[in-house]
What does this fold into?
Amino acid sequence: MSIPAGLLGVALLVAPVAAQQMDLELNPTGLGQDFAVPSPPSTYAVGVQLFTNQADFLAATGAINCEDFESWPTTGDCTSGVQSVIDFGPFRVEGASDEGGAVKILDAPCTGNHNTTPGGIKYLSGDTDVAFRNAQIDFEFDDATCAWGAYIIDAEQGIEITINGNVYLVPPTGDGGEAFFGIIDTGMFVTVELRVAVGSDSHYSIDDVCYGCPECFLVVGNAPGSGSFYPGIHEFHTQVGTVQGWYGTLMEVLPTFPLPQQSLVGSALAHGTKARKQFSELPTWMQDGEFVVQVAMWNPTVFPGHPEQFSNTLWVKVLANGSVLSQSIQPGTGMQVWAEKSVDAHGKPVVRFPFTIPGL
Ligand SMILES: [Ca+2]
Ligand SMILES: [Ca+2]
Ligand SMILES: [Ca+2]
It folds into this structure.
């Protein structure tokens, strides 16, 4: 299946987050995970958007990779042929147990499991009924990805999906049903774990898996300079020195970072233990209160003549009272980034870095 390149997808996403989260209940098992602020935060970045519709998901991500399983050999039939691992190149799928594997590629419907590719017949089957012990199926990617979307098929008990420590629920599809689950997580991830949400399900399936990163990355360093980073699609040579982190970023899904909340004026170091503790909970690159950011883009499809573009370089200073000072210190190729202070869903102060792209 090929995804039309179209316009850069980041500009097309207009539906509000809340509306798209409606059908995906979060943390149904009450495991204590917090959707908005993962704990402990693996990346400190929060920028997650969920989708229940494939078209909306692909409009948001722009051109990314998709696997419809149609070109892979069929490995079994309805009741046999499971493997513990199938390697699809950029990613592997595992469904192993003491009893043997749980994954196979089928080319015919089986007890409600079926293909979802228009005109296709094949799908990734999770035949988990070997003692119901291998109901978990893991996707493992070679390169960190920012987006993952797929049809979940014949999951009568619902499926829990774990990404970056957060658990999302795909509600029960009913016998023979299907549901789309899509996520953009700017914190980036290499593993997607699927698990039957309640009780057991002898067989569920997955098809039309799309994954990859959007075209833009927020790169963070400690000073102006000439650092480089490789987020999997292209090596960027930036105007940021000593690169300390990078995040996928879209115009409508921005990585968001916590700010200190204490009402103090001046640097953390000048104001004792409490202020220092607050700073120690921030991303490493923010802990000294000063950093530079830039947005880098690689998009040969939409901009074949100049696929690599950069924003201005922005110097940012965060004070212990949560104030954010910023100044543009070098021009880029026309993209613009700026700092924006906001509050998250819990009313806590955050900073994020919106950007614009010329021509979009
Ligand atoms: Ca298929
Ligand atoms: Ca069924
Ligand atoms: Ca089933």
Remarks:
- The longest strand covers residues 178-196.
- The pocket of calcium ion (ligand 2) is lined by residues 111-112, 154, 156, 175 (CB under 6 Å).
- The chain has two domains: 9-212, 216-356.
- Residues 1-44 have pLDDT under 50 and may be disordered.
